[in-house]
């Protein structure tokens, strides 16, 4: 063993003032000075490299039984695991060094600047391998349990791809563990931005398709949502959450069809009842108008109430998210398109909104509602084609198949949900519903509102939809 650390493998002479180069190869100072290109990696290592402190200490003791204390990482106080030597000559476990670099780009011992973690030190790895056998190379980073690591940030939907920039130290660590475990998945939950601290307990599992780690430790992750989940319990590990989750799936097809029929019947019956009541209570002199007395802007009370109670029965803990009035659209373009108060005089309404404002969506079948959404998507696509510079429709991308006989209804609605120009917090209820119909109804409600305001603008401004140039900071379409 002593021969390994006392002989230079380049010149076969004494390993005097051993240098570990940034490629992980160790040679004597003389050899490094003699050859311009590295004999191991053929590159030229131009940076200043200091002698390997650990190897020098081992050479000074030269008794194997006393190396135990020298082969100890200053960060974790365990024997080196994948020993990695910095150009300043200090050695750490590779994982310890990488974690330290998440927080500051410097050697954890002497604070010399260090941007990139070098590969493991080949000589020290061989020494540990020979002295202690296999156990040294075992990497016990991933806590071995079935809990799912959570990233708390934004919103994702099943079947919809997304790109995530991982820069926070805790998530860099989480991502490395996820990749090392071979599972290549983590849960994404939305941060509660407006009101409280913490995060929404409904989230989406992300399957990592491609991870590009930049030299400074940040990563660009391309992922696609696989399924929804609900967090049952979670606790912090190294700054991020490990969660026990339960999968959230839709009810089976038969149950969904039964609920749909029930809802359609209930909605028609209740409309018939209220029409009857309004006919009876109306003074005889006023001409009957078919338009119900629901205001143009503002949620439809019956619908909102219905939806809230559904969600509340299924998931009482998240029912409060439904109370956010959906009108809090924060696309600037909509406020541009929104008419001024005085324009909303009753006389002008029929002209401005050719389609009836109240559409009795609960009475329509789910497929009809989806057809309606598809029409809306086609309109957007046409608009995008004639206004290629408007970047606010960039997320439209290539839509999934839209025709009734080939489309995947579930996938299509997630895709449309992702496109809707609303804040992520308003979209959270979508993750909690267990029927496609509930999601379709909510998205339709958003779409109707969007279209009302859009058509108002169309009719008042000679078919000019607000373009990106008139509202340059239209950037919240997620
Ligand atoms: Zn040498
Ligand atoms: Zn080299
Ligand atoms: Zn360590
Ligand atoms: Zn150092």
Provide structural commentary.
Keywords: Metal-binding, Signal, Zinc, Zinc-finger. Residues 1-18 form the signal peptide. InterPro entries: Lon_prtase_N, Lon_prtase_N_sf, PUA-like_sf, Znf_RING, Znf_RING/FYVE/PHD, Znf_RING_CS. Residues 73-111 form the RING-type domain. The protein has 478 residues and is of the alpha+beta class. The protein has helices at residues 2-6, 29-34, 53-61, 67-70, 94-103, 122-132, 169-181, 253-281, 301-314, 332-337, 349-352, 366-386, 409-419, 424-427, 429-432, 436-460; strands at residues 18-20, 26-28, 83-85, 91-93, 148-153, 161-166, 185-191, 199-213, 219-237, 240-248. A five-stranded mixed β-barrel has the order 5-7-8-9-10. α12 packs across α16 (436-460) and α13 (409-419) crosses α16. Bound molecules: zinc ion (4 copies). Residues 73, 75-76, 78, 92-93, 96 line the site of one zinc ion (ZN).
Salient structural properties:
478 residues; alpha+beta; five-stranded mixed barrel; two-stranded antiparallel ribbon; 16 helices; 37% helix; disordered C terminus; binds zinc ion; metal-binding; signal
List the helices and strands and how they pair.
Elements: H1 2-6, E1 18-20, E2 26-28, H2 29-34, H3 53-61, H4 67-70, E3 83-85, E4 91-93, H5 94-103, H6 122-132, E5 148-153, E6 161-166, H7 169-181, E7 185-191, E8 199-213, E9 219-237, E10 240-248, H8 253-281, H9 301-314, H10 332-337, H11 349-352, H12 366-386, H13 409-419, H14 424-427, H15 429-432, H16 436-460
Parallel strand pairs: 5-7
Antiparallel strand pairs: 1-2, 3-4, 5-10, 6-9, 7-8, 8-9, 9-10
Helix pairs in contact: 12-16, 13-16
The structure holds zinc ion (4 copies).
The site of one zinc ion has 7 residues, from loops.
